[in-house]
Amino acid sequence: MKKTHLFILILSAIGLVFINYLITSNLIEEQNDHEKHQPMPLIYQMSFMQHFSTKLYFAGIEENWELADLYSHELEEIAEEIVEEDVEYDGNDISKLTEAMLISQIELVEDAIDAKDLPTFKRNYQTLINSCNACHAATGHSAIKITVPTVNPYNQDFSISDQ
User: Fold this and answer.
1) What are the angstrom distances between the C-alpha of 88 and each of 15, 41, 49, 78, 92?
2) For residue 92, what are the contacts with CB-CB under 8 A and spacing of at least 6?
3) Which of 20, 103, 119, 135 has the most C-beta neighbours closer than 10 Å?
């Protein structure tokens, strides 16, 4: 129980830091008389990916395919932004790694969602998590180990609505 509270506290702190970042940062700058979007820092993109992948998992195991589809698309959208933004970090081409290691895995999870196939969803989700960890290892960040969630840290019910 203490670990759950600590996890929720950490997620809340990350959220507050991100909100503070958005409030105090200028995400849009003018360049050549056009507004240009500055990419979100990689740590925030990764935090959002972890957030949506966790929600994706709980929606999927509840076989709430509509909700799982929503979260898989959010996850894919963040991954595609990383690819499009040509992100480099610590000398690693994160965009190319994301394209090579993550996009296809998200699509396999989406295939399982479309098929409403729980065993395939679980298997493909585990492969997705393995891909995250392989990328972390490839970039020298193997200390970052993502796991399949075991406890729902959100005050959200992921089961199918009775409506």
Assistant:
1) 24, 11, 17, 15, 5
2) 138, 139, 140
3) 135
Question: Domains of the chain, with CATH numbers?
Answer: 41-138 (1.20.120)
Per-residue model confidence as pLDDT tens digits over 106-134? 999 999 999 999 999 999 999 999 999 99
- Selection from 123, 73, 153 nearest residue 65 by Cα: 73
pLDDT above 60 for 135: yes
The structure's pTM equals 0.76
Given this model, what pLDDT does residue 32 score? 45
Taking residues 64-87, what's their average pLDDT? 96
151-156 own/partner pairs: CB under 8 Å, 24+ apart? 151/3, 151/4, 151/7, 152/58, 153/4, 153/7, 153/8, 153/11, 153/54, 154/54, 154/55, 154/58, 156/55, 156/58
